[in-house]
Amino acid sequence: MGKITGFLEIDRQDRKYLPAADRVRNYKEFVIPLSEDATRDQAARCMDCGIPYCHTGCPVNNQIPDWNDLVYHAEWEEACRNLHSTNNFPEFTGRICPAPCEASCTLNLTEQPVTIKTIECSIVDRGWQEGWIVPQVPTQKTGKKIAVVGSGPAGLAAAQQLARRGHDVHLFEKNAKAGGLLRYGIPDFKMEKTLIDRRVEQMEAEGVTFHYGVNIGVDKSATELESEFDAVLLTGGSETPRDLPVEGRDLSGVHFAMEFLPQQNRRVSDEPIGQVEPILANGKHVVVIGGGDTGSDCIGTSFRQGALSVTQIEIMPAPPEKENKLLTWPDWPMKMRTSSSQAEGAARDFAVMTRRFVGENGHVTALECIRVDEKMQPIEGSEFEIKADLVLLAMGFVHPVHEGMLEEIGVELDQRGNVAADTATYKASKGKFFAAGDMRRGQSLVVWAIREGRQAAREVDLYLMGESLLPR
């Protein structure tokens, strides 16, 4: 590294947020970037460790010490090139990845880790500003035609890699725009959708053909895909939500998170919400069941819609305030984390089980809850109620939708209901079908989807051409 003693001399400094009172007034991103000098100083904290565990902590295996050093030496364009060699969309991960790389940072053993995620975002944002990120149009075509089903991060990454190889890539998306969960699940205040739009423009220039409003298995059969294309890569999401089958579940005002979030994202982008009941938190007491990222997105969106109060409950016990780094490093530690949305004023409660939904005139008015012990068994005498006008179920997803495409193809599923395919070949059990991302691994992070999309693209290329120079 250019400044060997940087980690001894420079304290960690990360991006800050606009005040909550200001940011909840709109749906714009509210992270304040570091200055160029501050980013350079943070890159100087990378400590030239003997074994950079950040490489393996990062699912796409970003060459983090390399581009930290390039930033320190003000070689931003080369840093941008290096970053894109392992990650097709660092502006996505630089905003919404939880940064397992930072948990794996060697400096994290005894100090605060390098601000890897912030530096990554600074590099790619500057790359766009300076015009360094341009379409990579293939010099020759292979004559092979590939269908990619699902335009989430896995599908986008795979389609881009395959198009750059010279294949004729057709990406099928059931919604009106590309992005999958990036566009319809993650709120604009965490990632504005213009970031997806410019990547779509880049990919179109590289030769990817997007087919919107085409739900494979409904609007177009999977059998047609199989006959029309040389290979078919399934990269749809894990869209079947985990339900809460208790008394009162059918009351009005109880909804899945992914019924609520896409509506607001469509409103922000002036896209029609469709023939569905509007779900709004304005003037309501909102309860979010589930303590993960989707639950946090529901909180932030509810506040911006004008909720009177937001309470988030989680059946798991409260995690410890801090981890024992000497025991957990370099793995991702379980510890108490507060998201920006939770910090906007949500009440949080742990080790709470919902017994039933209470309602009047067919609409939910409260949750009847009970506290549970460490084995998630109810504690007698600990019953209580939470007032609620709107309940959002954000308890995760169990597997991809089976009805339609998957049933038509007849591919084998694993024990969890995902498409069975290993990471050696990403090959499904039937013919020319491959699977990657949440379709194959179940609900996961955007960065894992990008990794699987890239790796699956290489395997599809190898299957069609007998060899591949695409990076995994």
How does the SSE layout of this entry go?
Elements: H1 6-9, E1 16-17, H2 20-23, E2 31-32, H3 36-44, H4 54-57, H5 64-72, H6 76-84, H7 90-96, H8 100-104, H9 116-130, E3 145-149, H10 153-165, E4 168-173, H11 181-184, H12 194-205, E5 209-212, H13 222-228, E6 231-234, E7 240-241, E8 254-256, H14 257-268, E9 285-289, H15 293-305, E10 309-314, H16 325-328, E11 347-350, E12 352-360, E13 363-371, E14 384-387, E15 390-393, E16 397-399, H17 405-409, E17 433-435, H18 438-441, H19 446-465
Parallel strand pairs: 3-4, 3-6, 4-5, 6-17, 8-15, 9-10, 9-15, 10-11
Antiparallel strand pairs: 1-2, 7-16, 12-13, 13-14
Characterize the structure shown:
- By secondary structure, the protein is an alpha/beta fold.
- 34% of the residues lie in helices and 16% in strands.
- The strands form 5 sheets. It has a 5-stranded parallel beta sheet, with helices on both faces. A 5-stranded parallel beta sheet has the order 8-15-9-10-11.
- A hairpin with a 2-residue loop joins strand 12 and strand 13.
- The radius of gyration is 23 Å and the shape is globular.
- The two termini are 26 Å apart.
- The relative contact order is 0.13.
- The mean pLDDT is 97.
